[in-house]
């Protein structure tokens, strides 16, 4: 119920004020040339659906994190994954960007993300191994 209410609020508010009747008409009786159709289907609905997907993904990741470590207080900051990701990204910036003189911006971003992921993964694996010893 809370998710549906949040979705409706997200669809309702924006730069252009739409009434609930306009939203209902735009969702169920769309006219292709209507500005309401464009606002709803091109701007607000994708934004709201993406926000719901990201929120549910974060909830699943948090539940998995707490389930793996069997700790209801486990989060990326307590376990050290955030610090590991920061360390991996910093090392990538220092080593990769410093050693490769001709690198485009297109290739810098994937290496940085991959290095942050590897850093976080190494720290989480280390914490998991230490925790499983006891």
Characterise the protein shown here.
This protein has 134 residues and is mainly α. It has 2 domains: 1-71; 75-134, no CATH class. Helices cover 80% and strands 0% of the residues. It contains 6 helices and no strands. The chain has helices spanning 2-12, 20-28, 35-69, 76-79, 81-99, 105-133. Helix 1 (2-12) packs antiparallel against helix 3, helix 2 packs across helix 3 and helix 5 packs antiparallel against helix 6. It is elongated and about 60 Å long. The mean pLDDT is 86.
Q: What share of the residues does DSSP label as strand, in percent?
A: under 5%
Rough outline = elongated
Order of helices and strands: HHHHHH
Could you tell me the radius of gyration in angstroms? Answer: 22 Å
Helix coverage percent: over 70%
Summed over residues and divided by their number, the pLDDT gives a mean of 86
Largest sheet: none
What's a quick, concise take on this entry?
This protein is mostly helical.
Spell out the key features of this protein.
134 residues, 80% helix, mainly alpha
Write the layout of secondary structure elements.
Layout: H1 2-12, H2 20-28, H3 35-69, H4 76-79, H5 81-99, H6 105-133
Helix pairs in contact: 1-3, 2-3, 5-6
């Amino acid at each position: 119920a809370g998710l549906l209410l949040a979705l409706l609020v997200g669809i309702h508010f924006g730069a252009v004020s739409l009434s609930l009747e306009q939203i209902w008409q735009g969702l169920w009786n769309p006219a292709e040339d209507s500005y309401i159709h464009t606002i709803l289907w091109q701007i607000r609905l994708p934004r709201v659906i993406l926000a719901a997907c990201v929120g549910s993904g974060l909830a699943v990741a948090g539940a998995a994190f707490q389930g793996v470590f069997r700790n209801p207080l486990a989060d990326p900051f307590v376990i050290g994954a955030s610090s590991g990701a920061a360390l991996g990204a910093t090392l990538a910036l220092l080593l990769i960007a410093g050693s490769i003189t001709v690198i485009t911006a297109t290739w810098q971003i994937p290496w940085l993300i991959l290095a942050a992921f590897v850093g976080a993964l190494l720290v989480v694996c280390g914490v998991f191994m230490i925790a499983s010893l006891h």
